[in-house]
Write a structure and sequence with these properties.
This protein has about 190 residues and is an alpha+beta fold. The longest helix has 17 residues, at about 90-105. The model has no long low-confidence stretch (mean pLDDT about 90). It has four helices and twelve strands; from the N terminus they run E-E-E-E-H-E-E-H-E-E-E-H-E-E-H-E. It has one domain. The strands form two sheets. The chain has a nine-stranded mixed beta sheet. Strands 2-1-11 form a three-stranded antiparallel beta sheet, with no helix packed on it. Strand 8 and strand 9 (about 130) form a beta hairpin. It is globular. The protein starts with 11 loop residues before the first strand and ends in a 5-residue tail after the last strand.
C-alpha cells in the first residue's frame, strides 16, 4: 500500500475506491466493554483532542502522564516516557501546545492515570479513547456532551499516519517535560 499523503492531517485513513485514502472521522459514540473482567468505556470522539482535554475534569487534578512510543522513527526504540505527577492545568496546556502532533500522528498512545481517586484515560493510535474508572460520571459526561451509544468499527483496509516529518514535533514534546524513559520490548 502507498503511504498516506503528507497533508493528510489525521491519524487514521480508510480506503475509499472513489476518493482514495480518506481521513477517518468518528461519530461521537461510545460503548461499555469488559476486558479481562475490567469494565471500561470505549469512546470514538469526533474531536479526540477536545474530548480528552474536557474529560480530564471527571478524573481529578493530578495525573501521571505516559507517552508510549509504539512505532518509533529511525534512531528511537519502543519506549515508555513517563512523568510521575503533572497537574491538570499543565496537562491541558501540553495538549493544547502539542495537539496538532498528537492528533495527526499515530506512532503513540497517551495514557493519563488519575492520582486523585484513580482511573485512567488512554488515547490510542486510532483516535479512540478508553476510560477506566469513574464510569458513571464518565457516562453522564458523555451524554451531556451529546455522545450516543454505539460501537465503532475500524475500517478495512486502513493505514496509520506515521509521517517522518512529524518527528521534530515528537522530539519537541520529549524535550518539554522531565520524562523518565523506559525501553519496552512490546509496547502492547
Amino acid at each position: 500500500m502507498t503511504p498516506l499523503p503528507r497533508e493528510f492531517g489525521a491519524k487514521l485513513g480508510a480506503w475509499d475506491p472513489i476518493n482514495g485514502w480518506s481521513p477517518v472521522t468518528w461519530a461521537d459514540n461510545y460503548t461499555q466493554e469488559s476486558i479481562s473482567g475490567v469494565s471500561r468505556l470505549l469512546v470514538a470522539p469526533r474531536q479526540p483532542l477536545d474530548f480528552v482535554s474536557k474529560v480530564l475534569s471527571v478524573y481529578g487534578e493530578r495525573f501521571r502522564l505516559v507517552y508510549l512510543l509504539v512505532t518509533p522513527p529511525d534512531g528511537y526504540k519502543f519506549s515508555r516516557y513517563e512523568v510521575e505527577q503533572i497537574p491538570l492545568n499543565d496537562v491541558q496546556s501540553l495538549l493544547l501546545e502539542f495537539g496538532g502532533f498528537l492528533g495527526r500522528d499515530a506512532r503513540h498512545h497517551v495514557w493519563l492515570h488519575a492520582l486523585d481517586g484513580g482511573g485512567t484515560i488512554i488515547w490510542d493510535e486510532h483516535d479512540w479513547v478508553y476510560l477506566y474508572g469513574h464510569l458513571n460520571s464518565a457516562t453522564q459526561f458523555l451524554e451531556t456532551e451529546g455522545f450516543t451509544e454505539g460501537k465503532p468499527e475500524i475500517p478495512f483496509p486502513h493505514l496509520h499516519n506515521e509521517d517522518p516529518e512529524q518527528t521534530p514535533e515528537m522530539e519537541r514534546l520529549l524535550a518539554a517535560l522531565p520524562w523518565v524513559q523506559t525501553p519496552v520490548s512490546n509496547p502492547y
